[in-house]
Amino acid sequence: MATVDLNDVRKVYAGGFEAVKGVSIAIPDKALCVLVGPSGCGKSTLLRMIAGLETISSGTISIDGKVVNNIGPTDRDIAMVFQNYALYPHMSVYDNMAYGLRNRGTPKPEIDSRVRATAKTLELDQLLDRKPRQLSGGQRQRVAMGRAIVRNPKVFLFDEPLSNLDAKLRGQMRVEIKNLQRNLGVTSVYVTHDQLEAMTLADMLVVMNAGVIEQIGAPMDVYEKPASTFVAAFIGAPPMNLMALTHGADGTATVAGGAKIAGHVPEQAAILGLRPEDAIVPAPDATQKGALSLPVAVEAVEPVGMESFLHCAIAGERIVVRVPGRSMVQPGDRLEIAAGLDRLHFFDKDGRRV
Amino acid sequence: MARASDRKVASGFRKDPVLQQKSPKTPASGHDKLMIGQSSAGIWLAHAILILGVVIVAFPIYYTFVASTHSLQTILRPPLPLLPGPEFWTNYSQALTGGGTRIGGVGVVTLLVNTTVMALGIAIGKIVISILSAYAIVFFRFPFRMTFFWVIFITLMLPVEVRILPTYKVMVDLGLIDTYAGLIVPLIASATATLLFRQFFMTIPGELVEAARVDGAGPWRFFFDILLPLSRTNIAALFVILFIYGWTQYLWPLLVTNSNDMNTIVIALRKMISFADADTQWHLVMVTSILAIIPPIVVVVAMQRWFVKGLVESEK
Ligand SMILES: Nc1ncnc2c1ncn2[C@@H]1O[C@H](COP(=O)(O)OP(=O)(O)OP(=O)(O)O)[C@@H](O)[C@H]1O
Ligand SMILES: [Mg+2]
């Protein structure tokens, strides 16, 4: 029902600090756009600008093709779910959900039917008379969602809505939010610093760093083709291994410990990236050997159940390698790690993908 | 959990006499605190202390009540009996209908009305003004916001007594002597209450304010629907304090009221007492004293329910 367009949006706070430095995003109708980035990168600031809670220093924000820069939060037809839920503590669950509708002059019978219908989808119908303090964290979270849904707005805005829940509940709510959003078909912007949440929820992933966008794309595209070393290190756990790359006089590229890369390496490449799961251990027969082969020393082994992570060292560089299941490798062992050319990522000296 | 591990430790060191002594108690350790509170000696001691406290506080009031039910002759001839006398109706009806000659025959009813109007006026006026000014200072951004805050703050250092002459002059010029407005208005401006509300408002999370904005609540809606209900504990507490502050005002009512009809009960009491014992209608003084303490007690008891409820329901 609505598209959201950000055009060169900037935010300079009163103290002169520039929190958002020219951001442009075009969010298509019904899409769930996730803003992800480290703490302090300006995600919340950007979301609050879309909500109308923060003024826009320059640039334009449009909802459904209409510029909303000078429209207050009430009239933008958006609903927001806050990190600490921000439920009205003195109102019952019912009143919390009904409040926004009442303020907009919705007729009473309609308010009642909408609140009850929403409560039903969120399994809150038994709790309508309770006060927020009588609810568990997860239930409060649902009420906050309900308060947004019941208004049937053009856009949902979420600011780290799951960060106060325990890991299990978070996983559960993640799925629920995704389903709700898909069923309701409401364009949404979702802020998180949790890359797992970002990967699983997003139709459109926006990676931010220090007020600028590093990359926009579908989650798997971002994962497979990170636009910069920042994205490479931010998306994925454990993060991509990054190693310095040098070009020899004879045109061959070498990495730490003098290992050569067989195959074409772009001229500008200065950094080599390798995801932990793309490294093959132990190296298969020489005939199948990949473009890169690294002799490493294992420093630590981390079994996490269905997989194990080997922390290895080579000539001062540290590399993490994922192996499936339980590993027989012991700390102190020496290994040969291999990787195919198509699994290698190359970045220039500024960290841009080449 | 803790209890189970206690038991394990205890059984692992059976030979230690201290632990062995303790171990039979361990299953009940969760109730240890309760048991101290419930030991009979403790209960008796606690009650004895409480009763002693009540007696010390209540006895003078009781004695005043006793005195208010005796005739002037009985009061003036010591010792005063310890039990109420037969003059209850006579004394009370005389006082209520204006038997006190030293205050121009004004009935205590009039005094009570005057004092109630003043105390309510001060309490409500102060709360309204201070909650509104705190609302403006905390939730709005306007030029010279902090200047206004500091100006309000500075008035803390100027209590009524300090600015009494200019205030009196203003009241005379405005023709407010012997009026309720004259009694109430100069005592209304309050920095303390403004500060209190400001501190409370600053603890309200910004997210709540923003949620209300997104929900379409303008400044007034936010104030009435959210801020006021959340402040009710504070308001109740402040109301009690300010009502009693207004009720016990002495200096200002003394200056600003001349006619006996406009006296507050405290002023009237003072006027009823003469230096010469024989001149003073002590039985009426006692009646007036008893009547003077009833409204504050009612206010405290009524409001106490409110703010105990507020404390129990502490909602943030
Ligand atoms: N009102 C403000 N005045 C000045 N600077 C601010 C203000 N609010 C935020 N900032 C700054 O703007 C930057 C971005 O803040 P923002 O809240 O958007 O971060 P974030 O990406 O949401 O981080 P987090 O994940 O920790 O929530 C931070 O460096 C912060 O210090
Ligand atoms: Mg944030």
UniProtKB/TrEMBL annotation, chain A:
CDD domains: ABC_MalK_N. Belongs to the ABC transporter superfamily. It is found in: Cell inner membrane. PROSITE patterns: ABC_TRANSPORTER_1 (PS00211), ABC_TRANSPORTER_2 (PS50893). InterPro entries: AAA+_ATPase, ABC_transporter-like_ATP-bd, ABC_transporter-like_CS, ABC_transpr_MalK-like, ABC_transpr_MalK/UgpC-like, Mo/tungstate-bd_C_term_dom, NA-bd_OB-fold, P-loop_NTPase. This is Carbohydrate ABC transporter ATP-binding protein (CUT1 family). It is a peripheral membrane protein. It holds the Pfam family TOBE_2. Residues 4-235 form the ABC transporter domain. SUPFAM superfamilies: MOP-like, P-loop containing nucleoside triphosphate hydrolases. One of its GO terms (cellular component) is ATP-binding cassette (ABC) transporter complex, substrate-binding subunit-containing. One of its GO terms (molecular function) is ABC-type transporter activity. Keywords: ATP-binding, Cell inner membrane, Cell membrane, Membrane, Nucleotide-binding, Sugar transport, Translocase, Transport. GO terms for biological process: carbohydrate transport; glycerol-3-phosphate transmembrane transport; glycerophosphodiester transmembrane transport. It comes from Aquamicrobium defluvii. NCBIfam families: PRK11650.1.
From TrEMBL, chain B:
InterPro entries: MetI-like, MetI-like_sf. It is found in: Cell inner membrane; Cell membrane. The chain crosses the membrane at residues 43-63, 117-140, 147-168, 180-201, 222-247, 282-303. Keywords: Cell inner membrane, Cell membrane, Membrane, Transmembrane, Transmembrane helix, Transport. One of its GO terms (biological process) is transmembrane transport. The keyword Glycoprotein does not apply. GO terms for cellular component: plasma membrane. It is a multi-pass membrane protein. The complex is composed of two ATP-binding proteins (UgpC), two transmembrane proteins (UgpA and UgpE) and a solute-binding protein (UgpB). Residues 112-303 form the ABC transmembrane type-1 domain. Residues 1-32 are annotated as: Disordered. Residues 1-17 have a biased composition (Basic and acidic residues). SUPFAM superfamilies: MetI-like. It comes from Aquamicrobium defluvii. Part of the ABC transporter complex UgpBAEC involved in sn-glycerol-3-phosphate (G3P) import. Probably responsible for the translocation of the substrate across the membrane. This is sn-glycerol-3-phosphate transport system permease protein UgpE. CDD domains: TM_PBP2. Belongs to the binding-protein-dependent transport system permease family.
